[in-house]
Amino acid sequence: MKRKTKVSSLNFKVSSFFKKNHVQAQNDFLRDYLPWRTEYLSVLLDLEQLVNNGKCNDCGEGEGLIQCLSCSGTRAWCPSCVLKAHQHNPFHNLQLWNGRFYETTTLQAQGYIMYLGHGGEPCPNLSHQPDPSPWEDLGSMEDVFAQEEGDTINDTQLGVSNLVIVHSTGVYSHSVSWCQCPGAEKAHHLDLMKARLFPASLTRPRSAFTFDVLDNFLIDALECKTSAMSFYQKLRRFTNNAFPDKIPDRYRELMRVSRIWRDLVNRKRFGFGHDMERSPGPGDLALYCPACPQPGINLPTSWRYDYEEWLVMRRYVVDGNFTAQHMKMKIPEDDVSLADGKGYMVTEGPYQAHIHDSVEEREASSSRLIIFLKKSTCSNHRAVNATNIQRSNLRATGVGATACARHGCFVPHAVVDFQKGERHMNMDYSICNAVKYTPEPIGSTLIIYDVACQWSIHFAERVDQSYHLSLPEGTKILPAPGILMGKYWRPSGLLSTRFPLLQDPFKSLLKKYRHALQGISDTQGPYEELTRSLDLDDVQEWKKAAEKAAQDRGELLDIYQLKMDKAPSMAEIRLRLTENELSANGRTGSVAWLIEGINIENSQDALRLSIRQLPQDPTASQRTGIEEKRQKLMARIIKFHEAAEVMTNGMDLKGGEGAPLDNPELCLEEADISNMEDPEEEDILDFDGNIDSPAEVTEIWMPSWAASGHIMDDVVLALRQEELELRKGQANDCLEKLRQALGDRSVVFREKIHSNKSVHHQGTRSKKELQTITLSINRHARGYSRARAAMLRLGADSDTVAVYQPLKPQDLVVSKEVTEENRHGQGSDKLAWFWRINNTEDSQKNLWMNEFYRVNWLKAKARYDRWSEELKLVQHEMFWTISWFRTQEERWRVRADESIKNGNRAYAERQASMWAEFSAQGLKNFEGKLLITS
């Protein structure tokens, strides 16, 4: 009993521990809510009743029939007290008790007046207090809202006019008392600005938008991709959810004012409110990547001596987006641009001149026609091959951009419009502007572009012949095919600054840092282990070749490919043995006889496969086909055994063990392996009942099957040596075909299986092709296993056994070298043994194996070097990011010191403080990780 008590106590403690440390899921919270649902509903209904029995909570005398839904708590107010409480809260939502229920009312209906021009206080030049009574004749709220922008009805009555104000909590109508100071009538729009209200027009403003709602709209458009129409419709429902159409439509005003607001905010954030004499230049109203090297911004003055060239090399990715289309304008010449070329888009005038001149040259010169209009010969490059597709209703069929390849930040002043598709003339302009963006040329620039193979052919020629294209002196363009930019279009909203690195400047780099550490961990061990197992002289020679290839590139990169012929095949070994067979055993025909025995084994394997593929209840024709194959095969076996009597001088070669059984793990996807446990009873179809040993499992009398302990003469020993050589050739052939089949299956998986979005889209043809390749892999694997087993019975030496290792099912997986090129763990220890050779002595004896060894070592080294360089680059990017933040901080410190106005100084100090916080956060997150260059 005592033991039971202890056990129960222990179970209780364990249960309590798990309950205490259990993290509730969403459904757990919903279950907690269900018992309280009725009580919650009762509370909601109680809030609908008259508050405080209709007595004012403030004065205690008046009728408290008004409540505010925006204020904290439940209070009742009389009209005079509610105006006092909300003198500086004009955008609260009120309700008025009508004797039966609360109905919506407004501050304006209670006599609220908004004073403008003197910090919310009445103008001292007012001869008397404004009286809101003139608005009573307008009747309902809808009548007040019915006024349009610019109406002159009731413009000013005793210094009061009506103003529709759009706020983030709804649309409001207020009685506004303007400043009556001399000349103030011309500055009403400025009075609104000082009250944090943006006027919809400069003369006679009848509508205004709070700064808060404009900021809300920008954030909604950025994060939620909300259109202006949807955003304003939401505000109308906030105001009157039952009848939103009764709320005035200020959609057009929102479109116009939001553009102006975005322009003002951008100029303010980039310091052009402090330096009014300087106008923004190309790309000055856009941010660029903090982690990319930029001379004069985040690189030290001695950067050319402090860094290796590959570290500071610019890396750009280029691509087009055909979903960002632009309709033609009715009156394009009437369009007003607020920031032409100041952000991410290029300046319109010079760009259109470049396009026009390029077309003119195309028409005047046939050579230019080839340069600009030659269609891409690359597969799947539909964007380039569709350059002549025109859409008459579109001003731009899409956009093209250049972004930093490592962090996904668009380069300012490098986004271009497409006129007919993605043409070289468009992308040339984007690339040249991107390369010229940095204040000081860096040198080499890597351009990753899906059609780089076509684009780069005449790029230099196009730049030289154009008046509008140029590159900094000494710039070296390194084109590389690749598609990286698709993932950057989706979150960016095209031209916003919401890029991966700018969303969280530390998370992105820390993720790269962890990946680099993981990559080094996965590749360093296999590389060093492989190096220790090799001859030092070979390693040094291969290392020099790799360094030279990295420096000179070009054809030298072929060192990563196999250069030697494959291992000797069975046909080659047969030829050599046939030429020497008379001197070896004194008779001819022995090699052909041994080859026939190996072929019979292969035929037996094929027949066993056919039997495994039969259905559980085969038809008569299927059973007849198997029986015919058996008879033909048995005839070959009998003839072979008759020849064996002659070849071995009558010596008995029976092993007495029967033909070896197929490994079920090498018969996958052929039949249910559970039916292979007893092949004599279940797998073998005994049709006539008279066959003691069916042809597919009959033992073949070959030298390798001679029972151990038999006394063998010189003839049999010579035959065993010949068979051993042939078995080596058989094993080499099987391994070669196995490698080819595994490569084919990898390609099928990548191109036809993994590329499909859903399993339902995997066609029957692809599945059948994959099944055929799998059967081929299994067949070659079983053939190799038979060859190796025969070599062991023939007494192969230890060197041969070390080369021809056992074949395991896990060695036959799809090659991730093809399906997952960028994965972690690409060290040589991940390769199956038949892709690499692990014995130095053996590699010296077999040059073809040494070649495999060389290539695998070079690839293992390249993978390790790649991750080592990645780690080094990420550590420098951490330092560059912090330096970029510090530069921004310093610029705002200077603006604060030079500011004369108090507002300018305060804003500059706030911006400097923000960038300083970024720097401090970076130092904290990157502590112990970044590389600091003084």
Fold and architecture overview:
Helix 22 packs across helix 23. The protein has 934 residues and is of the alpha/beta class. The N terminus is likely disordered. The protein has 32 helices and 15 strands. The chain has a five-stranded mixed β-sheet with strand order 4-6-5-8-7. It is 48% helix and 8% strand. The longest helix has 52 residues, at 847-898. The protein is elongated.
Short summary:
Helix content is 48%, strand content 8%.
Sheet of most strands = 5 strands, mixed
The shape, in one word, is: elongated
Radius of gyration using CA atoms only = 41 Å
* Strand line-up of the largest beta sheet: 4-6-5-8-7
Average pLDDT, to the nearest integer?
79
Give the helix level as a range of percent.
40-55%
DSSP strand content: 5-15%
The poorly predicted ranges are 1-8, 132-144, 150-157, 360-373, 490-500, 672-691, 755-762, 817-829, 837-845
Number of helical regions: 32
Number of E-type strands = 15
What is the rounded distance between the termini? 74 Å
Structural class: alpha/beta
